[in-house]
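During the reporting period the student researcher (J.K.) took over the structure-prediction task from the postdoctoral fellow and processed the backlog of single-chain submissions. One of the processed entries is reproduced below for the supervisory committee.
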Amino acid sequence: MKLFTNILVLLAVALLIFNITLIDFQNPFKGDSVIAFVGIAASFCAVLILLIFRMSKKIVEKMNDNA
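J.K. obtained the following structure tokens:
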């Protein structure tokens, strides 16, 4: 499971970097730049969700070890 979440985090970070390259800094709120901002937000949320999931799995493992 840890390898799977690591791969998903890497993919989300790669998408985040890719979407940053799509932003037109001359007109950041027009055309494809808006789509890039949505992609950046979605990638950031995916990374956060995966990190929360990983932490929750560690907590469950510690609770099972103590029981």
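The committee noted the following: The mean pLDDT is 93.
J.K. will present the remaining backlog at the next meeting.
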